Amino acid sequence: MNPVIRFQNTSKRYGETVALDDVSFDIPEGVVCAVLGANGAGKSTAIRLLLGLDDPDSGSTEVLGMNSRTHALEIRSRVGYVADQPPLYDWMTVGEIGWFAAGFYPTGYQAQYESLLRKFDLDETQKISGLSKGMRAKVALSLAMAHRPELLILDEPTSGLDPLVRREFLESMIDVSAEGRTVLLASHQVSEVERVADMVAILLNGHLICLERLEDLKHSTQEVVLTLPDADSPAPDIPDNVLAHVAYGHEHVWMVRALNNETLNQQCAEASPPAPLVRTPGLEDILLAILKEYRRDVFTHDSEISASEQASEVPR
Q1: What are phi and psi of 151, to 5 degrees?
Q2: Residue 147 above 90 pLDDT?
């Protein structure tokens, strides 16, 4: 079965900024896939490439078996899309904007839109200009879902919404996937999407760090905390698959996949620090550790460049 979404060695730059760097992954049908990462990680760029709103510099993207570069209009007609700031006609009412959108879709769109308005408790006589941000988000979601798209793409859809509206919004994604349709949800609200996501993709600085089932990632990842005698003491090498390693003075934290506890205890015993503390982290713990390591590496790299530039300016 062909994947609903496919990235094949996809790269995209904007000037000196690398938005995506040789990214490859597939997303199957019938799942909620959360794309996580800090601002600037490449999430919105990935969505723009999928929808054919921009072209990759190299590689390709496919949606529903169609190349995004050559079939952009057909893709956008079959996909539902909700941006973080949905463009809505403020002078229309909630009902009028649905009637207007129905002209671009097959018969049945209007009836489904009205059904969604009732589900989200929206008043079709109210002007768009008078809606709260949460109500506007519900209108945008209703417009995106009324043609029952095979794929629903959401770009930071719950940003700035109150907790109750965010929960209603996200729980509706479970209904979509239960019908065999697919949801791609780009967000940095980790604790919230953790409740609804089947799969998780982590992007950092345009690189894909991991893509897999959320339960597999959580069940196979352990947090190792080791307190050394002082900040200058060398940390032991962890031979397993390390997702992140962050030091806080004399305390070190690792996020490790498929941890070998016997090997870990043996190495720590040889290095003579106290016994390590091993615990099961949540998705937010895993992501934060990865982000902290990335920021540390960037800071170190920038500091080395700055020091090198300063040295080159010293008169000989």
Answers
A1: -135, 130
A2: yes
Report the alpha-carbon distance of residue 309 to residue 312 in Å, rounded: 5
Give the integer Cα–Cα distance in Å for 217 and 199: 9
Residue type, 115: S
Q: Which residues contact 107 (CB under 8 A, 6 or more apart)?
A: none
- Please name each of the domains of the chain with its CATH number: 5-205 (3.40.50.300), 220-312 (no CATH)
Query: 250 is written with which tokens?
Result: 């004399």
Q: Which residue stretches of 157-282 are H helix?
A: 163-178, 190-193, 214-220, 261-271
Q: Extract the tokens encoding 204.
A: 């950092």
245 Cα distance to chain centroid: 21
Q: Which residues contact 247 (CB under 8 A, 6 or more apart)?
A: 235, 253
Which one-letter DSSP state was computed for residue 127? B
Q: What are phi and psi of 87, to 5 degrees?
A: -80, 110
DSSP 2: -
Strands 17-27 and 151-155: unpaired
pLDDT of residue 313: 47
Is the separation of the CB atoms in 180 and 152 below 8 Å? no
CA distances (Å), origin 105, targets 147, 181, 209, 312: 7, 18, 38, 63
Segment holding 226, helix H or strand E? strand 221-227
204 forms beta bridges with 207
Helix (H) or strand (E) holding 139: helix 133-145
Q: What digits encode the pLDDT tens for the residues 255-297? A: 888 787 777 777 666 666 667 788 888 888 888 888 877 765 5
Pairing mode, if any, of strands 182-187 and 151-155? parallel
